[in-house]
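Researcher: Excuse me, tokens okay?
***
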Amino acid sequence: MMSFAQWGNALYSGEKSYKVVGHRKRFVTATLVVLALSALIVGIFGLNRSIEFTGGSQFTVVGVSESSEAIAREVAAEQKLPGDIRVTSLGVDSMRVQAETLDPDAASAMRDALAQAYGVEPTSVQYESIGPSWGKDVTYQAALSLVIFLALVSVLMTVYFRSWTMSLSAMVALLHDVFVTVAFFALVRAEVSPATVIGFLTILGYSLYDTVVVFDKVRELTADVWDQKHYTFGERVNLAVNQTMVRSINTSIVALLPVGAILFIGYYLLGAGTLIDISLALFVGMIAGTYSSIFIASTLLVALEDRRARTREHNALVERTRERRSGRDSKAEDLAVSFTEDAPEGAITAGQRLSNRAQPSRKKKKR
């Protein structure tokens, strides 16, 4: 069994190759299905938006000796707070309670009840009220930042690679990463906060970097693809994908290790509830970005290029060249077989040599 380094060298040299581009129809179809399912999941379940988006009341209790969520829920039940109550542990000595918008009297009573239940001073309970208008403004700014990011990326990719097919393929890969991550949040009911939006934008940058690495190798290997007639555009792209596969995997593993530490170790051991939104978005998005840069961007690029007349003509030229070469090889083999069968006994055949005894003897010259 070869090591990871040997596997990477085999992929780079072409000794070992995976037909990623050869199955492009499957990957493109799977991408469209995933995008449709992601949109359907978000439409059915909706997003669990944080108080920053919906508005409401938030209480933060600091310096508690026992960080139990059950205590806060019991206080909320006693105060008869309306709607869904969200209780989160912040670190090891802080608690956060979120509820619907409360009037001043109800908020003051809740504040005193939390202080008494956790055994802290009333000044250790911070109260914050967020109005719905502010939440709408945050939602608008988040959507606007995402649209601006995608618009700038599309222009940058078109100018950098000088190819609209590469730009479109990269954009579809980015949309795949966003849709998958958002659908995951909707499915597991994880809270979407402004920090989550920052995580979304971060994974877009990471996915874009990974796609640019693959496309740089594609551009390098396809620079003279139209000047030769031995390999098609898709075959060169497939080689580029195989050569950059190990690098993409290594980069993803290195990036996922600290994010995974924040997500799992920090959350379960330290109760760092404020980190779950951004770390979960990064963790899911990085995995989706690694997949999309290898199996979506490259395959969609070839699928788009195959629809262009230049690519179709070149593919046909390569096919004719291979047929002629195969025909010459088969004729040479048939000729060798025919010569061997028709040759008289003891005669030399193609690829063979008579022994020294069978060679004609030289006549000695008279002195």
